[in-house]
Hints:
Elements: E1 16-20, E2 26-28, E3 42-46, E4 50-59, E5 70-77, E6 82-87, E7 97-105, E8 110-117
Parallel strand pairs: 6-8
Antiparallel strand pairs: 1-2, 1-3, 4-5, 4-7, 5-6, 7-8
Amino acid sequence: MRTPELDWTHGESTLLVITCARCGNHWYLPQVHCPVCGSVNSDATPAAGGGLCVAVTRLHVTADGQDAPVRLALVELDEGPVVMGRVHDADLAPGDRAHVDFRLDGPNGVLVPSFAKEMPQKGSVS
């Protein structure tokens, strides 16, 4: 695996999609081997950040005991992988187009992905 670019887990405002050079599988969060074929040959590319919201839930108790409730979403990125992140838009629901933003969160101000409903572009039909 090539040395990946830095992503939000290293304080950068980006999601990385990893693509296997052997089988073409796409996944999220770097790991040494492709989860499908086991190859170590892969490339990391920044995701555009858009996708389809497939689930939204609310946590009423958090590990640090602060800022409850917290809304989380699963979003299938346009590049394929499904990612989890916070929700900062009360209108985001399953079936909506979503877009990622990155926000500081928690007592230590850690950068995390956070999703909102994607606004339709002018002139498009929704």
